[in-house]
Amino acid sequence: NKLNTNRMKNILKLEQLxxxxxxxxxYYKLDYSxxxxxxxxxxxxxxxxxxxxxxxxxxxxxxxxxxYILTFSLIIIGYLINNQTLIMIGLIFTAHTSFDRFLGxxxxxxxxxxxxxxN
Length: 119
What we know:
Blueprint: H1 2-29, H2 34-40, H3 55-65, H4 68-80, H5 84-102, E1 108-109, E2 112-116
């Protein structure tokens, strides 16, 4: 029913807020540059340009950088090869993804930008 659906959406939003806060805290503890955080935080949204070539290409390009598989992979690979830049970018992109999902923007379907895995 509608009440359960709204409750679940709120739980999912709180979960994403928790991830966002955790990632920002880790970023702070690692003493990375807040200048780069500000510059790169919205960088994943550049791939929305794919929508100029249609919904399918747009969804694929958007989803490419708005998923935790990529962001966590950057962090893990950066850790394994001792590359602080990869870790930093992975944390920033994870923060961005959790921020988007907190706002209700999910992974896109081929129907169009407004159609996500969250609705």
